[in-house]
Amino acid sequence: MTIRVLLADDQTLVREAFAMLVESARDMAVVGQAPTGREAVRLARSERADLVVMDIRMPDLDGIEATRLIAADEDLAGVRVLVLTTYDTDEHIVEALRAGASGFLVKDTRPAELLDAIRTVAAGEALLSPGPTARLIARFLRGPSAQPAVPGGPGGLSEREREVLTLVARGLNNTEIAEALGLSPLTAKTHVSRIMGKLGARDRAQLVVVAYESGMVTPGTCNGE
């Protein structure tokens, strides 16, 4: 399948560079370029993109609000958002994850890593590196949140599901979760899917945010960080 990619960035040179890179991949195609967040939302609807590579700082409507509008639109339920930022300590990243983004990359990421990230997020996985991302989320979720990442909290989860959620928040994939809990990978995947269904989460990225917001995972508990 060809991944339909929409590029949203207010810098023309950046968009064009990303477009050339994406078009160089046989399994991807650029279906649109947006200089503003509002245009990104419009094109996501009209072009039926699979994934939006979204800059945070844009005129008219920033990337966070654009992500929130895309995530809230039932007609765009299958559209994933990969946020780009200049610095990996940007507190707006957490707000983007709360809004529905499936992960983030810094703009100086190597070309091959960007293409791999697009494939990962388009496949429904969250692009969350256990180290820097965990520290970042922990730092900015210590304060009160005006709006939780998902409608419900982890209170309705079973003990096993809470264990799985904790491991997801620590950056483990399904195979690693299975090994940690003595389960089959399929069973681990089923648990993750059920957790997302119970919490109304779009993907694993929002599960990570929920785990931190609820206090299930705290700073210092992720991979020895």
From TrEMBL:
Keywords: DNA-binding, Phosphoprotein, Transcription, Transcription regulation. PROSITE patterns: HTH_LUXR_2, RESPONSE_REGULATORY. Residues 150-215 form the HTH luxR-type domain. This is Response regulator transcription factor. It comes from the Bacteria. The keyword Methyltransferase does not apply. GO terms for biological process: phosphorelay signal transduction system; regulation of DNA-templated transcription. The modification 4-aspartylphosphate is found at D55. InterPro entries: CheY-like_superfamily, NreC/VraR/RcsB-like_REC, Sig_transdc_resp-reg_C-effctor, Sig_transdc_resp-reg_receiver, Tscrpt_reg_LuxR_C, WalR-like. CDD domains: LuxR_C_like, REC_NarL-like. Residues 4-122 form the Response regulatory domain. The keyword Acetylation does not apply. One of its GO terms (molecular function) is DNA binding.
